[in-house]
Design brief:
Structural class: alpha+beta
Largest sheet: 2 strands, antiparallel
Strand order of the largest sheet: 1-2
Protein name: Pol protein
CATH architecture: 2-Layer Sandwich
Helix content: 40-55%
Number of domains: 1
InterPro entries: Integrase_cat-core, RNaseH-like_sf, RNaseH_sf
Oligomer: single chain
Strand content: 5-15%
Number of strands: 6
CATH class: Alpha Beta
Distance between the termini: 33 Å
Order of helices and strands: EEHEHEHHHHHHEE
CATH topology: Nucleotidyltransferase, domain 5
CATH superfamily: Ribonuclease H-like superfamily/Ribonuclease H
GO molecular function: nucleic acid binding
Shape: globular
């Protein structure tokens, strides 16, 4: 359940990020930290299942709302398999973690660029992301999902639709989307550079010996109060 933002006038404090593994299309659903698993299930049905149907499987973090008996029971009844990311290893759901980082940068940009609460611009952030080119699929998520390019507000002036919508609305929407997309591209470039520096390609073969870090656990002995380290065959 990430990222977290300042409380808005409507009381929203968190954003539920849902990403399709195939098309990379995403939905940003605002919520409150007080929501129960039942409330998130209602949003899941109205915001995700309503548009895309029931997924075969879901990869999520180990948030208490997603490990609750209610949520597990709901997904079992709908025929969806739940896969949880490994604790302290966010790379298990890497695409969502990367998107969370980009979204956080977009939220900061909106807080500086636009007046009002962040939730009033969240739909524009979602639109800007889904209509931006993604190198991993070679197209925008919108095109991958619907099989055609999205007509954005930037193109409205070319076909005269701005007369129907009103010049002020078109202009303000254009400016907001262009600023958000610019910030998003900057954030993506920064995240890529950071990831490239830290990335280490590791390959292990059967029989290789590796060091295993063991955290101290209750009831387990440690050497002089420190976690024990040892070798482990893969």
């Amino acid at each position: 359940m990430n990222p977290r933002g300042p409380r808005t006038l409507r009381g929203f404090t968190v954003i539920w990020v849902v990403v399709d593994r195939l098309t990379k299309s995403a939905h940003f659903v605002p919520g409150k930290s007080t929501y129960t698993a039942s409330k998130w299930a209602q949003l899941y049905m109205s915001e995700i299942v309503r548009l895309h149907g029931v997924p075969v499987s879901i990869v999520s973090d180990r948030d208490a709302r997603f490990t609750s008996k209610f949520w597990k029971g709901l997904q079992t009844a709908m025929g969806t398999r739940l896969d949880f990311s490994t604790a302290f290893h966010p790379q298990t759901d890497g695409q969502t973690e990367r998107l969370n980082q980009v979204l956080e940068d977009m939220l900061r940009a909106c807080a500086l660029e636009f007046p009002g609460s962040w939730d009033s611009h969240l739909h524009l952030m979602e639109f800007a992301y889904n209509n931006s080119y993604q190198a991993t699929i070679g197209m925008a998520p919108f095109e991958a999902l619907y099989g055609r390019c999205c007509r954005s507000p930037v193109c409205w002036g070319e076909v005269g639709e701005q007369r129907l919508m009103g010049p002020e609305l078109v202009q303000s929407t254009n400016e907001a989307i262009q600023k958000i997309r610019s910030r998003m591209h900057t954030a993506q470039s920064r995240q890529k550079s950071y990831a490239d520096v830290r990335r280490k390609d590791l390959e292990f073969e059967i029989g290789d010996k590796v060091f295993l870090k063991v955290a101290p656990m209750k009831g387990r002995g440690t050497a002089r109060g420190r976690p024990t380290r040892g070798r482990k065959n893969t």
